[in-house]
Batch of 3 targets.
Target 1
Amino acid sequence: MKYISVLFLVFMIMVIVLADRGSLPHSIRAFYNFQNGDKLGHFILYGLLNFFFTRAFLSARLSQTRSRVTLSVGLTLALLIALEEWSQRYFSTRTFDLVDLTASFLGLIVGGWAAWRIKRP
């Protein structure tokens, strides 16, 4: 699961950088080219990111409880996502949007909950 987590994180970073530069490929833009599609994209992508990372950390069999690991990963990602959304104010090709941020946070909650519910690490 840790390899999937890292690969998905690299994919997410690439998408963010391309979007910041205004050069997101049409193939990626086509996935959410409908009304509120970007909100759904935030929900799904950040939900998957949290799911993969939470499962990876739970699989590491840390001495912390499952709930603590799930919460720690989710809060760390929430902070990074909030910073990334805030940074969009400084790019002419992007816009800061609280609804996007809310969709991202809801995805984090669902992804973290799903990862936590799976009993086997």
Target 2
Amino acid sequence: MEKHELRAAASLAAVFSVRMLGLFMVYPVFADFARHLAGATPYRIGIALGIYGLSQGLLQIPFGVLSDRIGRKAMIVLGLIAFGIGSVIAASAATIGGMILGRLLQGAGAIGSVVLALIADLTAEKSRTKAMALVGMSIGFSFLLAIVTGPAIAGWVGVAGIFWLMALLAVAGIAITLFVVPAPRRLPTQRATETVPALIGASLRNPELLRLNFGIFALHAMLTAGFLVVPALLRGTLAVSDRDQWLVYLPVLLVSVAVMAPAIIAAERYRRLKGVLIGAVAAMAVSQIMLAVGGKDVYLLLGGLVLFFSGFNIMEASLPSLVTRTAPAGSTGTATGIYSSSQFLGIFAGGIIGGWAHQAGGAAGVFFFAGALAMIWLWVAAAMHGPALSHDGGHLPVTARRSAQR
């Protein structure tokens, strides 16, 4: 990448990261904190955790379309202001209703699609893949860092303090956007990288894209539902305080990354991506059964967490690439916009259904819900045969796909 392109990609990755860092930090500690709020029930706690995804999912595409009209930076700043206001309301909430309102407003800052469109504006086509990869890596790093540090920081400043930190991070994101991110000289029409309303219907009728959209929906529904009950299991089974739960998450995540990296490399080298993906979904399904029936057993609990996060990391690394490779020419932006919305709606579904399952059936009810979702996903994934996959289930190299498109 050229120097100005690297600056654009790095600064926008920072904007993405400062917002996602706080959001991920609250995952491992939210359920225990929210149960002390007035009016809290397991169901309402699930709504409060997941409703962020509802506003995010519904507003991703509108934010992207509006940014074509009034400017990328303006929409990013507007989204970060909404995120900051929601963070302040959540930090000050004394009732579960106030927390739900704060989380809803946090999600209203749906800047993901705008950030990606601005990257497309500020980079040449030959550099765009590297720029997008930089953003993706920053999000992945933010997730790992936040899950590990969230419990420790909550033990220091409290969960309300994390929400105040989110507000400060929103201000930092606004400053980066205004003073560090380069301003595009013009707003070109990038049909390949932007959400085009006229193409939404075609993308929603594409069976291969629908399978991938369901996959990211299920993945984040399972993640969100799991964090409603896993912290309590760590306290009860491992006798680990909320503050010290990073001592569990750190090795679990390190092992899962160690599993993910060779699995992805092997899938690419031996053209067996479909097999690896199906194996990852199957591993997550097994993990939910282990957690449902053996959550009070140390070895089954730790084994289930390692299996789940190994599958999670494999899917999180593979699905975005598959979407861009599966989308028909000229509709990549539309396909990724729908994909992103599916991810956030999965967060909402995981929160609300997971909260209901927790209230009705305890921790086991949550894991049985997530396990059933994984089994449906396994059936859906088994039918994958899109252009990003070879007929024998392997993965076509990028160069081969580009040659085929030409």
Target 3
Amino acid sequence: MKTVVIIGSGIAALAASVRLKVAGLKVLVFESNSYPGGKLSEIRNGEFRFDAGPSLFTMPQFVDELFRAAGKKPEEHFQYTKQEVVCNYFFEDGTKFKAFSDAKKYAKEAARVFDVDENTISEYFERSKLKYDLTQSLFLQKSLHKVSTYFSVDTIKAIFQINKLGINSTLHEENEQWFRDPKLIQLFDRYATYNGSTPYKTPGIMSMIPHLEQHFGTFLPKGGMIDISQSIYKLALDLGVEFRFNSSIEEIRLGQGKVDGVICKGDFIKSDFVLCNMDVVPAYRKLLRDVKAPEKILKQERSSSAVIFYWGMNKLFDDLSLHNIFFAHDYRNEFKVIFEEEKIADDVTVYINITSKVVAEDAPNGCENWFVMVNAPGNKGQDWDKIIGDLRKIIILKLSRILQVDIEQHITTEDVLDPRSIESRTGSFRGSLYGSSSNDKFAAFLRHPNFSSKINGLYFCGGSVHPGGGIPLCMLSGKIASELIQSKL
């Protein structure tokens, strides 16, 4: 039986471990933390529970697919509910907007709130769908770094309609062509943050992202986002995948142009394949020190990071749809801070997720668990303690002003995650949330491939490699890598 060692247990690694075990390999997963899931973990403070990382779940079919691949019924192991409202938007001038998951309801509500025709919104979503349909098999389902990927009918279709993909314009420019209302433009510019980029640089093709919400919908697992990683972890255990926690890999051992295994706690573990779920920057710098690193790839601009406050709150909202809330501010100033100046902004856009609206056990009776996030630059040695203190004041003033209530009086418990702790907990270089940014039209091609072209048996998965960060893309990354390994069996 062939053996594969997987380094890390993020969502991509968990998905790959299931697929590789089903394919008949012996699978050993080494994780430096005491728990699986990577960024998809949780924080507990007294009776409050918070999802520590990702807070938006789309395309649950990728999780269901894993259970089916293992011969199990997904609904018996992983339950989730579709959300009627994707997000609630609050603007400084008092404008409020409910973004319904149903496209027709969304268009109708947008026409009521903003300076836009229903048909324009519907046409925008149709164009988003077209971009996704034309590119998903090329950019998401297969390795971009294999020649065979480009010899397909789907690739030819995409080439003939390349003028419709928005590659030569930015997301912001694309949205300006569609809409007049600056608030609506910012609303659709927001989708650049889904891969940690700026709408003023990331290409217009990223306007396909709204299609994922409006066509597939957004969901919340029965026990919160942590259920995603936990359910796949339990599936892997049931299949016989072996996990070793509190076990940091010290070196990927090589021999004659191929992997021999790994070194963990001074011991050599032999394996036929190594699948690295670790961020590629520290992977090369720490585990592959004798290998010539792909410096151009490693030195790409990193995605944004985040500062997240986890607040246990006295109850503020009775509306159960107010679980995802977006408090807007001027993006141009914010992303100038994040990607250029790296200093605190005068005001910020605030994203809040309150899972206790759906998962009652996440907060005591009469209370709410607030996941309060702002985009931030990566960790380059800034005075984060001062930044966090300043941000806290800015956020509280902003929310108190818009909601017309003294927010600070409602905070009962607090935890904070910042680029330093994101980096130390997950190994993500500089605390980036999505690996490299997509602030370039060639960014997809510049991401590290899912395999090593120099070392036989070495593969990569996760948010720092193709096809990118976020739960759906990471799961696809695990699938692509596992299929490449299976092709060698």
